[in-house]
Amino acid sequence: xxxxxxxxxxxxxxxxxxxxxxxxxxxxxxxxxxxxxxxxxxxxxxxxxxxxxxxxxxxxxxxxxxxxxxxxxxxxxxxxxxxxxxxxxxxxxxxxxxxxxxxxxxxxxxxxxxxxxxxxxxxxxxxxxxxxxxxxxxxxxxxxxxxxxxxxxxxxxxxxxxxxxxxxxxxxxxxxxxxxxxxxxxxxxxxxxxxxxxxxxxxxxxxxxxxxxxxxxxxxxxxxxxxxxxxxxxxxxxxxxxxxxxxxxxxxxxxxxxxxxxxxxxxxxxxxxxxxxxxxxxxxxxxxxxxxxxxxxxxxxxxxxxxxxxxxxxxxxxxxxxxxxxxxxxxxxxxxxxxxxxxxxxxxxxxxxxxxxxxxxxxxxxxxxxxxxxxxxxxxx
Length: 381
Known about the structure:
Elements: H1 2-11, H2 19-48, H3 51-77, H4 92-120, H5 129-155, H6 159-186, H7 192-220, H8 226-237, E1 244-253, E2 256-266, H9 271-289, E3 292-300, H10 307-317, E4 328-334, E5 339-346, H11 351-368, E6 371-377
Parallel strand pairs: 2-3, 5-6
Antiparallel strand pairs: 1-2, 4-5
């Protein structure tokens, strides 16, 4: 199937890099197919007086509207960066996905209301074998359209195209249920049309809610995938001068990402060498992820005689206090007899966490007979 889709793109001379063209092509192609399918369903829905088929036709018409949203979304998301939006307009693709999902949710709700009315006021829906076959043929075209949207959405990493694919698939599956209801109605089960409508409505709304979550999370600021964080950390730690890595932040703006991280280095490094190291890590990350990267330097004095023991003890405490897994920038100020231990931790500032932090400070202080200062940073990846 993918080969066929690839051939289709080549036929229309559309390259994968031309993101805007790919979005336009899917949008206009979907509009053409959906107009034909929705007209077939609507005509037969009115002829047969089937609420589930009419609702299914409206569902197909909503696909036309969602395709228009896709086209508009791609047009706006490809706008270059400006003063108000220095990272570009890539997140408009996610907004388009939210709009499509909301439309799908409204369609499902209206569908549910019509179906409940049909159960209270049932009528026999008579259909011929030819009519059922004609309506059934739309299922094949809708599933092909869904597969095409999924293919293109994954190819260019577009949430709105993937949402569009789910919209197409929900239409195909709802038509399957409509066909079953038409066959059941031919055998005298007049209430089946309304029941089938409820099943389709629930399915549509469930799909819409899942899509809304998928699109809303990146807009709100969801955490990046664990694999991305681990790869970034691995890249930085591949440099022998880097002691540890923390505070990795990944912001996604459509196809553009902004990555920042902190690296701990020996305090003895010169400013020039530290800057050269940071530049090297930034370029390495950018060469792999093709994104903007910024590396912050945290000098660490590991020469203190007790540094290793302090660090190991804090790590051992993490078994009972998981929040200590984020401990970083461990410093020791003073000589071997009189000193203070300082480190940073990523933690939400709640009363419960504050009390646990007091307990952690007490345990470390008693162990080394030293002052303990903990700086609390916001929780990050």
